[in-house]
C-alpha cells in the first residue's frame, strides 16, 4: 500500500457523489472519428454486456465500432443517464441532448481503447483491489456495502457490472502510470531551479482553481485546419466572456478528461499546474476568461474560477519532525465485514500490548499490505506523507504505543510508532517535493498527448446516425 496522499486523479468512481458509474477518461473531437484507422474493418466481437437490460420492446443496435469491439445504444443510453445525473447534482446546465450524446460516446470510445490496450499489454487488477475500491465508494456514500448494492440494483444498475466498471477504472489509472507518468523525466537541474524559485515565494502563496475547454488539433493537421480550431476556440472564449455558462460549454465541447465536471481542474498550487495555464490567468480576477492559449495538445480556453491561500505542498524552511512507523492493514470484504475486521485488529493489539508479541511478526502473518514482508515498516515519514486519517492517529502516539483500529481510505490499520527524530535541514525532502511538483506539472500535458495518439491509431466507426 502507498500511504502517500492520493494523487490528483484518484479513482474516478469515488469522486461521484452517488451511484454514478466511473466517468470516462477523455475524448477527441468527433470530426475525424476514424483517424489513424486501418483501411479494412476488423472482425467484430461482442462488447462488454450493458449494465442494465434494455427496456422491453426496445431494440438494441451498434452505435460505434472500436477496433474489434462494438458499443451498443443501450450502453450509451446508460452512460448518458449517469452523466445527466452527475451534471444535475453539480448544477451544470445540460447541453442539447445530441451534443451530450456525442461527448459521452467519444469518452466511451477512448475508454474502450484504453481497456483494449490494457488487455493486450497485461495490465490486470485482482478482485481484492476491486472489492476494497467498491467498499470505499459505498462508504463515501454513507452506506454499507449491502445497502449500496441494494440501492444500485433498485436503480436498475447491476452490481456485478458496476464492479467491472470500477475494475476498468483502476486498470486505466495503472495504464496511465505505466505509459505516461513512469516515463516522465525530471532533471536535477529542473529541481534546483524549482527550489530556487520557491525560495522567493511568499509564505501566503495561493492555490488556483482553473477551468478549461480543450479543443484538440488533429494529428498532422494542415494550416487551414489549425486555424479553424483556433477560431472555434476564440468563439467559445467570446461566448464565455459574454455570459454563457462556462461549465455548459465545457460539457458540450471540451475534449479534456474533466469536461463532464464542467472543465474544472480543482484547487492546485501554481507549481502543480502547467506553466502555460498559470501565465495565462496571471492578473485575472475570479470569473475572468483568459486569452486562448496553444499547447501541443490543442487550443485551451481558460477561466479562473477562484484563488485562495495555499495550505499544503510548500517546501520546508526549518526543522521537520519525522516519524518511523509500522502498521497492520486489514480490508473489509464480503467475507470479512467491518465488525469482524475491527474485532481481529483489536485482538492483535491486545496480543502486542498485553501479550508481549512482536508487532512486526504479526504484521508478516496478518497484514494485507505489501509492507507486511518488512514487518509493516513504512520507514521515516514526513508531515503530509500519509493520508490525514492515518497521520492524525500516528501523531497522537508516543514511541512504542500501538493505536486502536484506525480507518483510512485503504482499510483498517493498527499503527505502531517506533521512534521520532528532527531533521534540521530537510534538503532531500524538499528535493522530493520539488520533483513531485514538476512531475505533476508535466503529467497532464503528457497524458493528453498520449490519449491523442491512442485515439488516432484506434480504428473507430461511428454508427450513431444510422
What is the secondary structure topology, with strand pairs?
Layout: E1 62-66, E2 69-72, H1 73-89, H2 97-120, H3 127-140, H4 145-154, H5 159-179, H6 188-199, E3 206-216, H7 223-241, H8 246-253, E4 264-269, H9 275-281, E5 293-295, E6 298-309, E7 320-330, H10 338-353, H11 359-366, E8 377-381, H12 388-395, E9 406-408, E10 411-423, H13 427-456, E11 460-462
Antiparallel strand pairs: 1-2, 1-11, 3-4, 3-6, 5-6, 7-8, 7-10, 9-10
Helix pairs in contact: 1-2, 2-5, 3-4, 3-5, 6-13
Describe it for me?
The chain has 466 residues and is an alpha+beta fold. 42% of the residues lie in helices and 16% in strands. It contains 13 helices and eleven strands. The protein has helices at 73-89, 97-120, 127-140, 145-154, 159-179, 188-199, 223-241, 246-253, 275-281, 338-353, 359-366, 388-395, 427-456, and strands at residues 62-66, 69-72, 206-216, 264-269, 293-295, 298-309, 320-330, 377-381, 406-408, 411-423, 460-462. The protein has a four-stranded antiparallel sheet. The chain has a four-stranded antiparallel sheet with strand order 8-7-10-9. Strands 2-1-11 form a three-stranded antiparallel sheet. A hairpin with a 2-residue loop joins strand 5 and strand 6. Helix 1 packs across helix 2 (97-120). The chain is globular, with a radius of gyration of 24 Å. It starts with 61 loop residues before the first strand and ends with a strand. 35% of the residues are buried. Residues 4-57 have low confidence and may be disordered.
Amino acid at each position: 500500500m502507498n500511504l502517500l496522499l492520493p494523487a490528483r486523479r484518484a479513482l474516478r468512481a469515488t469522486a461521484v457523489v452517488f451511484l454514478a458509474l466511473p466517468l470516462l477518461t477523455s475524448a477527441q473531437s468527433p470530426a475525424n472519428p476514424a483517424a489513424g484507422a486501418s483501411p479494412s474493418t476488423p472482425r467484430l466481437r461482442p462488447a462488454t454486456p450493458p449494465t442494465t437490460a434494455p427496456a422491453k420492446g426496445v431494440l438494441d443496435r451498434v452505435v460505434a465500432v472500436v477496433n474489434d469491439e462494438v458499443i451498443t445504444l443501450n450502453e450509451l443510453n446508460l452512460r448518458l443517464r449517469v452523466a445527466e445525473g452527475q451534471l444535475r447534482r453539480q448544477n451544470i446546465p445540460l447541453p442539447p441532448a445530441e451534443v451530450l450524446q456525442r461527448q459521452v460516446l467519444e469518452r466511451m470510445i477512448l475508454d474502450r481503447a484504453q481497456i483494449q490496450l490494457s488487455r493486450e499489454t497485461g495490465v490486470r487488477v485482482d478482485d481484492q483491489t476491486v472489492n476494497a475500491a467498491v467498499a470505499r465508494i459505498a462508504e463515501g456514500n454513507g452506506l454499507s456495502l449491502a445497502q449500496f448494492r441494494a440501492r444500485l440494483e433498485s436503480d436498475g444498475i447491476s452490481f456485478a457490472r458496476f464492479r467491472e466498471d470500477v475494475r476498468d477504472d483502476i486498470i486505466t489509472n495503472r495504464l496511465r502510470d505505466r505509459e505516461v507518468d513512469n516515463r516522465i523525466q525530471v532533471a536535477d537541474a529542473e529541481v534546483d531551479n524549482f527550489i530556487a524559485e520557491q525560495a522567493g515565494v511568499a509564505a501566503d502563496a495561493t492555490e488556483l482553481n482553473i477551468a478549461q475547454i480543450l479543443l484538440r488539433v488533429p494529428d498532422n493537421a494542415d494550416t487551414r485546419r489549425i486555424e479553424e480550431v483556433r477560431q472555434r476556440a476564440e468563439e467559445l472564449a467570446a461566448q464565455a466572456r459574454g455570459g454563457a455558462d462556462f461549465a455548459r460549454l465545457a460539457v458540450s465541447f471540451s475534449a479534456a478528461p474533466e469536461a463532464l465536471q464542467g472543465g474544472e481542474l480543482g484547487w492546485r498550487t501554481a507549481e502543480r499546474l502547467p506553466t502555460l495555464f498559470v501565465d495565462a490567468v496571471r492578473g485575472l480576477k475570479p470569473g475572468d476568461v483568459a486569452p486562448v492559449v496553444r499547447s501541443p495538445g490543442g487550443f485551451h480556453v481558460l477561466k479562473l474560477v477562484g484563488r485562495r491561500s495555499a495550505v499544503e505542498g510548500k517546501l520546508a524552511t526549518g526543522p521537520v519532525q519525522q516519524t518511523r512507523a509500522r502498521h497492520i492493514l486489514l480490508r473489509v470484504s464480503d467475507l470479512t465485514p467491518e465488525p469482524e475486521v475491527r474485532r481481529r485488529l483489536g485482538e492483535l493489539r491486545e496480543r502486542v500490548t498485553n501479550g508481549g508479541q512482536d508487532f512486526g511478526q504479526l504484521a508478516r502473518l496478518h497484514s494485507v499490505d505489501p509492507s507486511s514482508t518488512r514487518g509493516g515498516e513504512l520507514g521515516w515519514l514526513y508531515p503530509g506523507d500519509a493520508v490525514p486519517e492515518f497521520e492524525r492517529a500516528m501523531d497522537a502516539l508516543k514511541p512504542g504505543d500501538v493505536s486502536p483500529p484506525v480507518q483510512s481510505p485503504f482499510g483498517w490499520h493498527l499503527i505502531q510508532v517506533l521512534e521520532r527524530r528532527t531533521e534540521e535541514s530537510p534538503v532531500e525532502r524538499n528535493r522530493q517535493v520539488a520533483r513531485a511538483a514538476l512531475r505533476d506539472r508535466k503529467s497532464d500535458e503528457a497524458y493528453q498527448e498520449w490519449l491523442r495518439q491512442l485515439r488516432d491509431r484506434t480504428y473507430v466507426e461511428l454508427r450513431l446516425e444510422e
